[in-house]
Amino acid sequence: MREGFTVSDIEIVKLTQANIGDADGWTEVLAASWGADLPNFPAPSVAELVGSVSRPSVHARMERWMAKIDGRVVGVIEGNFGLTDNTHLVEFELDVHPDFRRSGVATALLAKLEELGAADGRTTYISYAPDTIDPAAPRPDAGQKFLEKNGFVKGLDEIRRAADLDLVPAAELDDLLARAWEKADGYELVQWVNRCPDDLVDGVAYLDGRLITDAPSGDLDLQPQKVDAARIRENEVRAISRGQLNVDTAVRHVASGAVAGWTNISVSAGQEEHSWQGITIVDPDHRGHRIGTILKIENHRLLRAYRPKMKWVQTWNAEVNDFMISINEAVGYRAQERWIAYQKKS
Question: Is 13 exposed, middle or buried (0-12, 13-18, 19+ CB in 10 A)?
Fold first, then answer.
């Protein structure tokens, strides 16, 4: 806890384009907070944050608020207010600089977000806190204690894994891929960067909309997303305008033309070492053909083709999702820590 100030010294300010100069302070808080709590977890760059603020989604309103003391940003909260679906919900991330923790900063930020949520008719709040899975690499439990103190309860356990793209020898991946294709007779590979081919976009939208239905969600109050081709196109344009790279791989059923499976990895503007695994999903009608393995290996290779220096891919899976976890570990993902999804309903 930082000495020499009281709760009354905390100023809560919204981050907008008008005060975008505070993006430096915002990212400094995240770098300090994540650096202390989450090894091998990259904070966003100023360019990434500025792009997000200046090019918002039409499907969600992002509320970004800062806690400032003597003009310095010491804590941040980002709330996702869905506009197209999950309009009952606010998902948020809250971080406080390690030097200013246990001093009322987090409480003030959460109070502001809940005030906004109540005014907007939101009844459910979800956030995540890290938890130790390896005693040799402990994670702080302050986030868990804070959320529980404020009325949140556990809803789902997920595990963050990071893939070292150099961990599994290429020959071993070649063998995995060859054996997977033996099970996928009648399917073909399709890959793209930044823009989905027109003849696949409806199938990709269908799979995207299935994610919340198909993936384990525990006790979380999540509703399926309404995804169509227009929404896919809007997301693509916004990502490009932010300087984000997206690499995608799909497996298509040749006879029907159906998109049987699809995966995505995104790379933030200016990032060369870390990337983010997005959706990986296989249509239930096409499971049992090792399509998930094909998607993962082929998309990692596409990523490396466009970012040769890329080292890490970050992903999360529900702890009970044994099938996807087995695929991830086979291609190089290793557990870092548990992320507990906490939920509060009003």
Answer: middle
Can you give the pLDDT at residue 4?
60
Question: Closest Cα partner for 63 from 27, 107, 97, 12?
Answer: 12
Question: Is pLDDT above 80 for 3?
Answer: no
Stronger pLDDT, 54 or 7, i.e. the higher one: 54
For residue 204, give the amino acid letter.
V
Predicted confidence band at 2 (pLDDT cuts at 50, 70, 90)? low
Contact indicator for 230, 84 with CB cutoff of 8 Å: no
pLDDT, the chain, mean:
96
3-state SS class at 345: strand
Question: Tokens for 228?
Answer: 């169509």
Name all contacts of 256-260 with Cβ < 8 Å and 24+ positions apart. Answer: 257/199, 258/203, 258/283, 258/285, 258/286, 259/200, 259/203, 259/204, 259/206, 259/207, 259/283, 260/187, 260/285, 260/286, 260/289, 260/291
For residue 102, give the 3-state DSSP assignment: coil
Query: What gap in Å lies between CA 107 and CA 87, rounded to an integer?
Result: 24
Comparing CA positions, the residue from 145, 60, 77, 74 lying closest to residue 103 is: 74
Task: Give the architecture (CATH level 2) of 162-339.
Answer: 3-Layer(aba) Sandwich (3.40)
CA distances from 283 to 85, 202, 214, 215 (A): 22, 13, 9, 12
- CA gap 67, 69 in Å, rounded: 7
Domain range list for the chain: 7-122, 162-339
157 vs 320: CA distance, rounded Å: 8
Q: Which CATH number fits domain 7-122: 3.30.70.260, 3.40.50.12780, 3.40.50.10860, 3.40.630.30?
A: 3.40.630.30
